[in-house]
Specification:
By secondary structure, the chain is of the alpha+beta class. The protein has helices at about 20-35, 85-95, 110-120, 135-145, 190-200, 265-275, 275-300, 330-335, 340-375, and strands at about 5-10, 10-15, 15-20, 35-40, 50-60, 65-70, 75, 100, 130, 150-155, 165-170, 170-180, 185-190, 210, 225-230, 240-245, 260-265, 305-315, 320-325. β5 and β6 form a beta hairpin.
Length: about 375
């Protein structure tokens, strides 16, 4: 049995299969090298008296073993809140087990996050103008001002339910998007009147946000952006692990890998648009510097965090924009571009940070018991 245990909180897809199981398998293998046993479970696996039925990966047998055990002391939350019921279940788990060490905290939805980030004058310039959806009329006004807008569900993930609307001419608009199943919606060219009718049929409500669009179209018509991963290292400090480019499939308005996007190195994607190596270097430096600012600020608002995936856009002039921030990022993009060392670091860092957190906690308990014994002397 390993000397240290890390609980990974996950969600079931259907009744039996856990989301991200291949990542947890990799995490388990890397954990073994560090003397950390990875134990995966869902809040539904918790039983009475602090016992829980966890899954551990047995490398010698090459399979997952389910066993009943006590609650692990450190929790790495990898649950995606795809439904309100999941969110409530996880909220209840965190509340009931508040004494456990959590590596991170949940963040806010897209609209609340925009409001929070807008408070910081160093971060504000990186944010596209964003408003809450109120009516088709207001959306059309916003569109005339910015000529390109995105309409997003405030709780959406993976490109689900996103619309892109662009004004092509005095009375010509192009509507594209993906439905809630991530399926690409056929492009729709329309006059303002036709667009208004179409938008009414989509039954948008104030659970959506409307965002100024950034021009992300490459010469071949596909959209692109960058995924930057910043994580806590084994000293409890933020460090940029890596950044990779993502290019969406044809006719897609998003570049998410889950939605059929492809991965490409950051340098290669920057070189498609910017001929000057100096310009590319300055964009990379700005992305990294912004990532540290954002990570530090979010911790002042939400408490300790472990890792953040930032979806970053670079417009044709080289300006850097934040599209979205994700506290439970995937790291597959680095494996897909053949960056094996970066992918390994991306997997290992949460483990190293968990070990560091355990050490801090032990020191705190030792200091506390020393103080108590002094007080009773």
């Amino acid at each position: 049995m390993s000397s240290q245990r890390l609980g990974v909180l996950a969600i079931y897809i259907g009744k039996t299969r856990l989301e991200e199981l291949s990542y947890f398998q990799r995490l388990s293998k890397e954990g073994k090298k560090l003397g950390v046993q990875v134990e995966v479970f869902s809040p539904t696996d918790v039983e009475a008296d602090n016992s829980v039925r966890t899954l551990t990966y047995d490398t010698s047998l090459g399979k997952w073993i389910r066993r009943r055990t006590s609650m692990p002391p450190v929790i790495y939350d990898r649950c995606r809140y795809k439904a309100a019921a999941n969110y409530q279940m996880l909220k209840a788990f965190r509340s009931h087990h508040a004494k456990l060490i959590f590596l991170s905290r949940p963040l806010a939805n897209k609209w609340s996050m925009h409001q929070i980030l807008s408070e910081n004058e160093d971060i504000r310039p990186y944010l596209p103008v964003t408003v809450r959806y109120s009516s088709v009329q207001e959306l059309l006004k916003f569109l005339k001002k910015h000529t390109l807008v995105y309409v997003k569900p405030k709780n959406g993930t993976g490109g689900r339910g996103i619309l892109r609307i662009e004004q092509l001419g005095p009375d010509l608009y192009l509507l594209q998007g993906r439905n809630q199943q991530r399926t690409i919606i056929a492009p729709y060219r329309a006059s303002e009147k036709q667009l208004s009718v179409k938008l009414h049929t989509l039954k948008l409500n104030n659970d959506y946000v409307v965002q100024q669009g950034i021009q992300l179209t490459l010469k071949d018509g596909r959209v692109h952006d960058y995924r930057l991963l910043i994580q806590k290292n084994g000293r409890g400090e933020w460090e940029v692990t890596g950044c990779a480019g993502r290019i969406g499939p044809h006719r897609s308005i998003t570049s998410n890998l889950h939605g059929g996007g492809s991965a490409v190195s950051q340098d290669k994607l920057l070189a498609y648009r910017f001929a000057s190596p100096e310009k590319m270097e300055s964009i990379k430096k700005e992305m990294n510097s912004f990532a540290y600012k954002l990570a530090d600020f979010l911790e002042t608002k939400f408490g300790k965090l472990c890792e953040l995936g930032m979806d970053i856009a670079v417009d044709p002039r080289g300006n850097v924009w934040l599209l979205e921030v994700n506290p439970k990022p995937s790291r597959e993009v680095f494996r897909k571009i053949g960056e094996g060392a970066i992918y390994q670091k991306a997997v290992t860092r949460p483990l190293e940070y968990a070990v560091w957190m355990l050490k801090q906690n032990t020191r705190k308990q030792e200091a506390s018991s020393t103080e108590e014994s002094k007080a009773t002397d």
